[in-house]
Amino acid sequence: PDQATARAAAAGTTAGTLAFTLGHWRARQLLARPMDPPVTTTPWHLMPIPRVLERLDADHDGLTPEEATARTALGPRRGEPTRTTLPAAFIEELANPLTPVLAAGAALAAAVGSRTDAALVAAITGISALVGGFQRVRTERALSELFARSAIGARVRRGGTERLVTAGDLVPGDIVMLGPEDVVPADCRLLEGEGLEVDESSLTGESLPVSKDPAPVVGAHITQRRSMLYEGTTVSAGRAVAVVVATGPATEVGRSLATARQAAPVTGVEARLTSLTRSSVPIALGSAAAVAGAGLLHGLPLTENLASAVNLAVASVPEGLPFLVNAAQLAAARRLADLGALVRNPRTIEALGRADVLCFDKTGTLTEGNLQLAAVSDSGGPLPADRLDAPRKAVLAAALRATPPARQSEPMAHQTDRAVSVGARRAGVGVRRGAPRWRRTDALPFEPSRAYHATTGRTVHGPLLSVKGAPEGVLDRVARRRAPGTGHATELDAEGIRKLGETAEELAGAGRRVLAVAERRMREGEELSDEAVRDLDFLGFIAIADPVRTSAGPALARLRESGVQTMMLTGDHPATADAIAAPIMDLPEPKVCTGPELDEMDDAELDELLPTVDVIARCSPHHKVRIVQAYQRLGRVVAMTGDGANDAPAIRLADVGIALGRRGTPAATAAADLVVTDDRLETIVSALMEGRAMWASVRAALAILIGGNFGEVTFSVVTSALTGATPLSARQIMLVNLLTDLAPALAIAVREPTGHTGERLLKEGPSRSLGAALTKEMLLRGVITAAGAGLAWTGARVTGRGRRAGTVALAALVGTQLAQTLTTGGLDRHVLVAGLGSAAVLAAIIQTPGVSQFFDCTPLGPVAWAITLGSITAATLVGPLLAPLMRLERTPLEADQADQADQAEGTAEGADAADGAEVPAASR
């Protein structure tokens, strides 16, 4: 997965295109599409293994390649993007709420004789749908590439030969082999199991691994079905051979996802765009009625009035509205890809813009992620790793014996184990130092619940048990203290164990990770189990260091400046966590809690505690799940980082799940919405800031699109009331929309955000950016646009004919909107090209004979252009002075949602999260 994400990051455009997955309206259609979860009633867990294989028409050698190919066509695959053709995408892009309005307007325009205008409406609508459809096809191709790159692999036996396939290629009857930390690729019936334990927390919420056994079992609930393995769960320990019984939507996870899709709520931005779309229709109809009524009052023919009214109504509808946010998300995702953050979920950009809590791991995020042996301590105190004496080398040798061996084909599972092995090799220490002819016989692997790794080995003196793990876990199991390299041991009482704990805290106080090392002789025939790890001889401590990134502190400061609460989650000792967090978080005394302390709290106590905590030490995966759930109960929007298979449940549950691509396991990568390829906190912070800053661009673009149309309607209605007819024809209004809406609005939406301070970013987000702030900007732009056009038209009427006045009004209408666009976009290259290019096109149309007449214009002279430029300048300069006068109150809906959020979290920061809740990540 890390190589795949690196390739995707290098591909920039392809990776960025992923964010544009199916488009705004396409996503809504997919979520609303009925999907009945398939019901599977076969009691596989009850059947004996021969009966299971007979029912599936399979055997222990697996299916033949021909049988697997034949069965592939029989079952659907979940998650893979469908391949859509361009014609199909074009038709689906037309399925948005504005298309019927535009079609009705075009039909009315043709009915009253304006066939050319009707053709223009149809052409603009078709081009917009064609562009959207083309981008959808490109997106789905990119998604297919991503699925191929990051798909979870499965070792399958086919025709008696093992091979590696993707999980999507599995079919019922396939025989799969699983080992530690493998993700279960489908629902399977267990055939063989050796010490098998499975983490099912992502499916059942059970935090501890569940032991599995091939024997048939009576189980009404999936937690009781010990003979079954379910898709998405992770093998914690042991090995297994299983037969696939369900894939795709037929799995337990597949049915849950299908049910969730049926009830997926509408997000904040979707609700706001739907509201704007609905509002534009009555405004268009109202303006048409006003124009028609004004014409009748002035005695103009009904046919002429009706044509003008219909043309105004059709032209005033914002055709590009469904397309605008998609373009902004696409541009933001491309910039994120350049930063090394790959978007894998179409709603991730919106959720990033709303996140106000970031929970992150220490290792590899705050630190370099390169653990190294720093020191070894015994009764004489610590010595650096490069100056170890014989007693401390004996402690290191015992720690090495309690370290799982590195497989040649894959890196060691835990970086601490790798640090011990590399440090021992550099110090010239081997596993047989102090244990002649030692040979490993059994092992008890590390798990968060037991917090140690134990190994038994055979020596010339008999069996030897070696243990390495967290001090608080190991010290509870020691009874004596033995000087390394000697047989002399002294009994330890409670006071002695307490002093050892203080020593561990002193070592951890320098920001090091501390491990305790202990051993004891075993009796012949004694089996290794958790109960056997008792009555140990304490030998010493191992200190491991991970350099802190110098850029981590400024990155966290950016987050705090933007109102995002940060919480460091680590499995380290509290003293280690405190030593690292204090300088990076710029806090003299960061508040540190531990996972065991959280276990003693109920949900209400946890909800009260979390807003005040900076660090959670000794944090295990099930603690992360509780933390995410607690923040969500408080109305907060949570971003959670992780890299391990056990982190997958919390990543999936969070509003924004972030996987660390360099160190991440397939389970974490598959569960994430965002994959950070370099594991750096700065990249995560940049992604959060990009998500927030995008909404400032979206608000400005929507203000251009809708505010400009509002100004056009206002100017047309007012002039109609005065003269009985609109100065602008339908073609001219269409021309205005083409020159001011399409290119300039898109340029503003996709521009790279600049100059956004943390205080300003705090005010951004779908709810706030698209709420009263957007309404204010739309009204302000509408007033400025109408004022510029009105001044120009009045001046031109005084100095010339009506056709010339209409052309001057057209030029001023376009020019005023473009001037505001250039003011908003600053020196952005795309905005300058779009704004100045549109102005040049307008001037060419007006001044070119023939083309000018087609658009009901007349070439203008110096006086007319002077009136136009003067009106544009006056409106643009005076307009901002009106902004302080336009103080808008929140709508009742916004006020209610903000009040609910404030009550939930007690601060104003939560108001942004309360509006338009993201689809729960577990549903995704």
From TrEMBL:
<keyword id="KW-0812">Transmembrane</keyword>
<dbReference type="Pfam" id="PF00689">
    <property type="entry name" value="Cation_ATPase_C"/>
</dbReference>
<feature type="domain" description="Cation-transporting P-type ATPase N-terminal">
    <location>
        <begin position="43"/>
        <end position="114"/>
    </location>
</feature>
<dbReference type="InterPro" id="IPR059000">
    <property type="entry name" value="ATPase_P-type_domA"/>
</dbReference>
<dbReference type="InterPro" id="IPR006068">
    <property type="entry name" value="ATPase_P-typ_cation-transptr_C"/>
</dbReference>
<dbReference type="InterPro" id="IPR004014">
    <property type="entry name" value="ATPase_P-typ_cation-transptr_N"/>
</dbReference>
<dbReference type="Pfam" id="PF00122">
    <property type="entry name" value="E1-E2_ATPase"/>
</dbReference>
<feature type="region of interest" description="Disordered">
    <location>
        <begin position="62"/>
        <end position="81"/>
    </location>
</feature>
<keyword id="KW-0472">Membrane</keyword>
<feature type="transmembrane region" description="Helical">
    <location>
        <begin position="778"/>
        <end position="796"/>
    </location>
</feature>
<feature type="region of interest" description="Disordered">
    <location>
        <begin position="895"/>
        <end position="924"/>
    </location>
</feature>
<dbReference type="InterPro" id="IPR044492">
    <property type="entry name" value="P_typ_ATPase_HD_dom"/>
</dbReference>
<feature type="transmembrane region" description="Helical">
    <location>
        <begin position="831"/>
        <end position="851"/>
    </location>
</feature>
<feature type="transmembrane region" description="Helical">
    <location>
        <begin position="863"/>
        <end position="883"/>
    </location>
</feature>
<feature type="compositionally biased region" description="Low complexity">
    <location>
        <begin position="898"/>
        <end position="924"/>
    </location>
</feature>
<dbReference type="InterPro" id="IPR001757">
    <property type="entry name" value="P_typ_ATPase"/>
</dbReference>
<dbReference type="Pfam" id="PF00702">
    <property type="entry name" value="Hydrolase"/>
</dbReference>
<dbReference type="InterPro" id="IPR018303">
    <property type="entry name" value="ATPase_P-typ_P_site"/>
</dbReference>
<protein>
    <submittedName>
        <fullName>Cation-transporting P-type ATPase</fullName>
    </submittedName>
</protein>
<keyword id="KW-1133">Transmembrane helix</keyword>
